[in-house]
User: Fold this.
Amino acid sequence: RATRGHTGHALTAPPTTVAVYLAVALAALLRIAAALVPGWSVPLLTLAGIGWCAGFFGFVLLYGPMLIRRRA
Assistant:
């Protein structure tokens, strides 16, 4: 929200931003689940890593251009 406000964009989060935040939150939950269910730790950690990468890559794709360009 701060990024959007400081770059002159609307303070409402579009669905793509919500998806990025959900990917990171889900990755965190999967990481916790991996610690609680040792037999599934490798697949859960793999999914957590994929979710983490997807979330941050998505953030860079969405917010990188806003931060590089002049204020809207």
